[in-house]
Design goal:
Blueprint (H helix, E strand, L loop, with lengths): L2 E6 L12 H21 L3 E6 L14 E4 L2 E4 L6 E3 L4 H13 L5 E3 L2 E3 L1 H11 L7 E6 L9 H15 L7 E6 L16 H9 L5 H20 L9 H13 L10 H8 L7 H11 L4 E11 L4 E10 L2
Parallel strand pairs: 1-9, 2-8, 2-9, 3-6, 4-7
Antiparallel strand pairs: 1-11, 3-8, 4-5, 10-11
The structure holds 3-[2,3-bis(oxidanyl)phenyl]propanoic acid (A1EG2) and fe (ii) ion.
Length: about 325
Amino acid sequence: MSLALVTMSHSPLLGYNDPAPEVKAEVDNAFASARAFVSEYDPTLVVSFAPDHYNGFFYDLMPPFCIGYEALGVGDYGTAEGPLNVPTGTAEKLAEWVAERDLDVAISRKMEIDHGAIQPLEILFGGIDTVPTIPVFVNGVAKPFTRMVRVRRLGEAIGSFLATLTDERVLVIGSGGLSHDPPVPQWATATEPQRALLLNGRHPTAAARDARQERVIQTGRDFAAGTATIQDLAPEWDRALMAVLASGDLSPIDAMNPTQMAHEAGNSAHEVRTWVAAFAALSAAGPYRVGYAYYRPIREYIAGFGVMTAQTAR
Ligand SMILES: O=C(O)CCc1cccc(O)c1O
Ligand SMILES: [Fe+2]
């Protein structure tokens, strides 16, 4: 059984804050390369590991991981709104398989998902319901964070299930990262209105959504101009992580420490958990080989921006 993988940074600022034309062309080329890889592989099932940015998951009930049995895009930053095409029966079997492997995972029969999960689907498939997709939420912004070994084990358990689906061509996606520290409020330092949003900010008014998004867009502009106060990107950290993921030996991931990750690469660097889960899933089907890799720190997007493709080695 073979699996394929695409991991990619996302940024809500794509299309809002464009970098210099040659950088934009590079990113477009990276997306085109990932798209070509996916279209050649022609997946029949996608498992998408993605974080959320307080659009679908809130502090009224914040799981570290959640498998979606049904899902809806919320439509933030102009991304698609409405239902995904989730194969519910397969998602249920996946959650049972994971539970039997001694891992604790939440499930949702109505998962609401934001640009973190939607953007790769739109970039790779041109829509959110073209290929059956099981969304797996991996918390990448809300403390507390599990140890990284749990992320690896979850990915491996999911991959071992996917490897049993011999009639499917499964693509795993990891969305987010790499190093970045966007202005997502932290509970400890949030104002009262921010805390209300973090606690239960579902279905904001259009005006509230616009105000929040405008703040992120403006921070991206300031960051590119050198006047933002957010933590800088960490290209060495990003490249080192990509090298570990490409090596096929994920064991060094277990030693990554959540506090240190945020300190070195920014609070939202925890989104790399989606990459780790995706690579761990791929590894469960046997040795793999990375085909394509792109990286550049892009301040306009507030992201150490990476794209990788990989596939079970033959
Ligand atoms: O809070 C938000 O609305 C999005 C923040 C954000 C900005 C740039 C890259 C990201 O990955 C990200 O999560
Ligand atoms: Fe993000």
